[in-house]
Amino acid sequence: MGLLSEGWRRTFWRKRGIDKINWAAQSNAMSDKQIVEDLLQRIPEDASLRDIIRDIEFVSAVREGLAELDRGERIPLEQVERELPSWIIK
Question: How far is 10 from 21, CA to CA, in rounded Å?
């Protein structure tokens, strides 16, 4: 095991995900090009192309989800609760 505990790593990446969600939510006034440019400034220098693509896809999905909510396209909680067991891989 490295210098950092596995729990710390999970907390770090969970926080990074929350930061990305907040950033994606606040980027509504930016063009897609501006979003990618800003994202490239935020990622570590040693990020792989796969990491960059994942971050772009993540931000795109968050923005798409927020746009759906703005249009009133929601799934009722009761429906999610009914369908959730089928989403879980055992």
Answer: 17
